[in-house]
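Good morning,

Attaching, inline, the backbone tokens for the sequence recovery test we're adding to the shared suite. The designed sequence is right after.
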């Protein structure tokens, strides 16, 4: 489970962000100001921080700079939300944020940045954070899961959502290095996982040749890193 910290004085932003990210796959922490955010990060060692430039105490850029100066807390992805002005964009570039998102932004934009940045922290062996959707499902819901293994022909996912053999999935995930992979697949096997979760083997039924090459490169690099 990945830990995400949302930092903003605006109740609207916190509510919007929490509704977007507060799923079983993420643990979301809320902080109204920078000093509280620092304490939460020191206690929880979150994986990703999303902060507004305008906070109650110090700016979001100052919060990011403080975190980057601390050797114990600097290893975290940081998304800074700012206005589309030269001054705020320059402040964002100087503080060490991974991404500066300009207002106004859509839910899709922030979600894609979250997925891309968490893909870096999830990587262990052939693991990725994956967003999936069951085609034709009545709830039409998108769900998140973590892969246990990845190959050019398919992926083994761990999920709390019950799936059935033959379910058709639409899959989307980022590989470290920012390669965005999309593929259609079919659930080919199901096993019981730990803590009530399900292990599902998904066979790719449609994947772009370039995306297949990106997966091959990712696996090759992972094998080299492991040795």
């Amino acid at each position: 489970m990945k830990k995400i910290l949302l930092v903003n004085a605006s109740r609207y932003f916190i509510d919007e962000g929490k509704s977007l990210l507060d799923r079983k796959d993420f643990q979301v922490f809320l902080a109204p100001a920078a000093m509280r955010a620092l304490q939460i990060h020191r206690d929880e060692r979150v994986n990703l921080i999303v902060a507004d430039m305008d906070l109650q105490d110090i700016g979001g850029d100052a919060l990011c700079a403080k975190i980057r100066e601390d050797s114990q807390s600097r290893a975290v992805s940081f998304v800074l939300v700012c206005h589309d002005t030269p001054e705020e964009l320059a402040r964002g570039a100087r503080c060490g944020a991974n991404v500066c998102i300009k207002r106004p932004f859509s839910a899709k934009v922030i979600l894609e940045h979250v997925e891309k940045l968490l893909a870096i922290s999830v990587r262990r062996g052939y693991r990725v954070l994956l967003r999936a959707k069951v085609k034709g499902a009545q709830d039409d819901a998108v769900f998140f899961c973590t892969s246990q293994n990845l190959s050019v022909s398919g992926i083994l996912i761990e999920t709390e959502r019950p799936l059935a053999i033959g379910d058709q999935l639409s899959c989307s995930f980022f590989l470290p290095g920012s390669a965005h992979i999309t593929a259609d697949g079919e659930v080919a096997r199901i096993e019981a996982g730990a803590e009530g979760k399900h292990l599902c083997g998904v066979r790719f039924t449609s994947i772009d040749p370039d995306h297949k090459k990106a997966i091959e490169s990712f696996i090759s690099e992972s094998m080299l890193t492991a040795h």
